[in-house]
């Protein structure tokens, strides 16, 4: 009957979903084993599971397995998913942040860090919104454009120390936690540039290098990043597979 066909289809769909969630758990196990092989005399980096375009059910599976740090590129997606998941998920915002979205993002109590602070204007806006929301502090990484490409966001290497100094001196609601880069196909050079930026910040601002995190390394190069000192790797496709549906981007100029 039609009802029986529907039940069969529903059962098959459920089985497909189970296979997907099981694969996610296995993918995480494999990645953690690979990370363990990269570290010997220092703690493993924080693993941020980047769930762009993926359904909440897959995030929930990793949460049920014990994972807590997840990343999103778009404010709307992060807010929507945060509303459907437990409050102890530690969210990382890892996309380009427009100033008019700061309030919405900072309203999330379990926002762990904004990894992409790339201008003094954005830092000022975040600090103002924290004050308005009576939020004590929010962790931030300063994003560095390590490739020098005009298509990439981030401050230049030469502006790095000045940007960190600005946050420390004028944005008391922002907790400078480290440096971040997206990188390019020439990932080694980009990562080495970020390592050099950390050295510059450490020596010129008298901050121990051990207190400056490095967010670098994605699915294709996370082992190299760990070798070079990354403390925060952002892994998406290696865990969740390729993006499900390409997201349309606005043609208007971003508000920065």
TrEMBL record:
PROSITE patterns, sorted: UPF0001
Cofactor (UniProt): pyridoxal 5'-phosphate
GO molecular function, one term: pyridoxal phosphate binding
Alphabetical keyword list: Pyridoxal phosphate
All residue ranges annotated as the Alanine racemase N-terminal domain in the record: 34-242
PANTHER family xref list: PROLINE SYNTHETASE CO-TRANSCRIBED BACTERIAL HOMOLOG PROTEIN, PYRIDOXAL PHOSPHATE HOMEOSTASIS PROTEIN
InterPro entries given in the database record: Ala_racemase_N, PLP-binding_barrel, PyrdxlP_homeostasis
Upper taxonomic lineage: Eukaryota, Metazoa, Ecdysozoa, Arthropoda, Crustacea
Coiled coil: none
Protein family: Belongs to the pyridoxal phosphate-binding protein YggS/PROSC family.
One protein family per Pfam: Ala_racemase_N
Organism field: Hirondellea gigas
Name of protein: Proline synthase co-transcribed bacterial homolog protein-like
């Amino acid at each position: 009957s039609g009802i029986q066909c529907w039940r069969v289809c529903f059962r098959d769909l459920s089985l497909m979903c189970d296979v997907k969630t099981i694969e996610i758990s296995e993918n995480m196990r494999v990645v953690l084993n690979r990370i363990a092989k990269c570290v010997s005399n220092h703690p493993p980096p924080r693993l941020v599971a980047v769930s762009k375009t993926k359904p909440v059910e897959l995030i929930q599976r990793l949460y049920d397995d014990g994972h807590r740090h997840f990343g999103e590129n778009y404010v709307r997606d992060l807010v929507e998913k945060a509303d459907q998941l437990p409050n102890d998920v530690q969210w990382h915002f890892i996309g380009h942040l427009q100033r008019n979205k700061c309030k919405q993002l900072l309203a999330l109590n379990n926002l762990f860090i904004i990894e992409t602070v790339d201008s003094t204007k954005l830092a000022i806006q975040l600090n103002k919104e924290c004050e308005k929301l009576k939020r004590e502090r929010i962790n931030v990484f300063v994003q560095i454009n390590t490739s020098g490409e005009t298509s990439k966001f981030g401050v230049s290497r030469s502006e790095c120390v000045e940007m960190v100094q600005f946050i420390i001196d004028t944005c008391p609601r922002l907790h400078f936690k480290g440096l971040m880069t997206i990188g390019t196909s020439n990932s080694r050079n980009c990562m080495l540039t970020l390592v050099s930026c950390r050295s510059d910040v450490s020596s010129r601002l008298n901050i121990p290098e051990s207190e400056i995190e490095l967010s670098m390394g994605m699915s294709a190069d996370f082992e190299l990043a760990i070798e070079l000192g990354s403390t925060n790797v952002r892994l998406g496709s290696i865990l969740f597979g390729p993006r499900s549906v390409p997201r349309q981007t606005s043609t208007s100029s971003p508000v920065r």
